[in-house]
Structure formats: C-alpha cells, structure tokens
Write a structure and sequence with these properties.
The chain is α/β, with parallel strands linked by helices and about 280 residues long. It is built from 9 helices and 8 strands. It has helices at about 1-15, 55-70, 110-120, 135-145, 165-170, 200-210, 210-220, 235-240, 250-255, and strands at about 20-25, 30, 45-50, 75-80, 125-130, 150-155, 175-180, 225. Bound molecules: adenosine-2'-5'-diphosphate.
C-alpha cells in the first residue's frame, strides 16, 4: 500500500482542491467517478475471484481480503466473472491445453450471488455488484437477486462503447464502471490500434488543449460511467485525474461514441466454451 499512499499524496499535493464528482449507488453511497483501478492496490472496491464462487468459499474469501487490506468492511464487492473455475488456491487453474479448469459441478452465478448477499447482511460489505456480466446476465441478477447489483464493471473505451448495456444499466439503477478505459495503450491487444492515437480523439484533444487519454476519460464520466484507468506513473495518474475542468460538446460525444468497433481486449478465452462465457452476449 505504500506506493499507492505515495501516489495519493502526489495527487493531493498537485490538485489539493480537487473535489471528485461522484455517482450515487442504489445504496445511497457516493462513488467517485474516477478511481485508480481495481485489483491489488485499489481502494474501497474488491473482487471475488473465479476460483471462489462456491457458496462455502465466498465468506472466507471476503474475510481473507479484509484481513489482507486491514479493513473492517468493503464499500463494494464485485463478482469478477460469471463463470466459476475449480475451487482451490491455484489462481489460474489450467489443463494441459491451457484451458481453464471449470468448477465441477458447475456453480451458477446466482448461487454465488446469494452468498454475496449474506456478506451485506453480515455488514462485511456495503454494496455488491458484478463484473464482465453481459446484459442478459445482469438482468438475471436484477430479476432473481434479493439484493440488486449496484455496479457492473466492464471493459469499455471508444472502441468498445457498450451503449446497450449503459441503457439497460441506467433503466435499472446500476452504475457502470469502465476498466481499461484507455484501451490498454502499449499492448497489441487491439491489433496495434489505440483509441489514444485515433485521429478523431487526437483532434478533439487538441481542440480542448487536453491529452487523448483525458478526452477518453472525460467522454466516459460525461455519460455517467465511472472510470478506473491504471497507471504506475505519478505524472499520468495526475494527468488522468484532470478531467473535471472541461466539457465535451454533444458533437464531440457523438463522434467518440461513433468510433465503436466492438473491439474487446480482455476475453478470458480460456473458458469460452462455458455456456455462461459472457462475450457471446450483448453489451
Ligand atoms: P503506465 O503504467 O506506464 O502509465 P488501461 O487502464 O486502459 O488498461 O490502461 C493501462 C495502461 O495505460 C498502462 O500500461 C499505463 O501505462 C497506460 N496509461 C495510463 N495512463 C495513461 C495516459 N494518460 N497516457 C498514456 N498511457 C497511459
């Protein structure tokens, strides 16, 4: 946590008066529209990993995370993926062909969700949500859950705009968080194409005297999406936080939304034969 603490100090030194606009979760809690990413090193939100879906594993997994983080409760706890992998301490259980070893018998995500609801009852988490759930999977949790999901965290950037998911989420009071909102620059995952180098994004950035990264992030928060851009560089973290001092026009917003290519980076292809692998469905 030391590096994270240093980065937060760096931001507050350079932007001491920055009040972060927030989205309101269905619990009434306010969640900043900008976060520093989830996974090791994040604040407030944590995720239940794919090997911990068995109903008996959910409470111990959450308690372990609380102990590791030194916290009494989590603000938000997300089910990372709708597919359960085999139980145990192997983080990425794989067979000899590199395929994920699935839970046997399968654990439907609603069984996992019911155990997550008990974490709320026990006061260990304030809100629960999902991640990488497509529209029909999110609707299943909304319909059958006693506690409705507060958040669905999905990959989204100008080449993966998820407009149908956003509409469904807004209709059902679910906040969408975008991971990889910059399209993971530097990786070849988008076939060498980066939204940060898109001529239309670059041109809008020049017009506003902002960077392409700031434009990609501003576009998301302006359409009500929370962003969690990851960076190890204090200068970039600061850059990524300076998105609340300018406004994109309606035309800018439409231009960026029009760049959609349904180009997905994070596919978890090692379990794409599971019927609940989410990326055959609509986002
Ligand atoms: P670095 O850690 O060197 O800053 P995403 O959140 O879309 O998955 O992207 C994460 C990647 O984006 C990281 O490799 C990070 O590299 C890079 N990155 C973060 N912020 C910026 C930025 N403002 N401009 C360019 N690249 C960035």
């Amino acid at each position: 946590m030391t590096r994270l603490t240093n980065l937060l100090r760096h931001i507050s030194r350079h932007a001491p008066n920055m009040a972060l606009p927030a989205a309101t979760l269905r619990t009434g809690a306010r969640m900043p529209l900008l976060g520093l990413g989830t996974g090791p090193g994040s604040v407030g939100t944590w995720q239940l990993w794919n090997t911990r879906h068995h109903p008996d594993d959910v409470l111990p997994a959450c308690q372990r995370s609380l102990t590791d983080l030194g916290l009494d409760y989590l603000d938000l706890y997300l089910m990372h993926f709708p597919v359960a992998w085999t139980r145990g301490d192997v983080y990425y259980p794989k067979d000899e062909n590199g395929r994920a070893v699935l839970a046997t018998p399968d654990v439907p995500f609603m069984d996992t969700w019911k155990s997550m609801e008990k974490l709320v009852d026990a006061g260990l988490v304030k809100a629960i949500g999902v991640s990488n759930f497509n529209i029909s999977q999110m609707e299943e949790v909304l319909t059958n859950g006693r506690i409705k999901p507060a958040v669905n965290q999905v990959e989204s950037h100008p080449y993966l705009v998820c407009s149908k998911l956003l509409k469904c989420a807004a209709d059902n009071n679910v906040i969408i968080t975008a991971f990889s909102p910059l399209g993971r620059p530097g990786e070849e995952s988008l076939h060498g194409v980066s939204p940060l180098k898109d001529p239309k994004v670059v041109s809008i950035a020049e017009k506003h005297k902002k960077t392409p990264a700031q434009v990609c992030l501003r576009w998301q928060v302006q359409r009500g999406v929370v962003v969690v851009p990851k960076s190890t560089s204090p200068a970039r973290i600061l850059e990524n936080s300076q998105i609340f001092d300018f406004q994109l026009s309606t035309e800018d917003m439409e231009t960026i939304s029009g760049l959609n290519k349904d180009a997905r980076i994070v596919k978890f292809g090692m379990c794409d034969d599971h019927p609940q692998w989410p990326f055959n469905g609509e986002f």
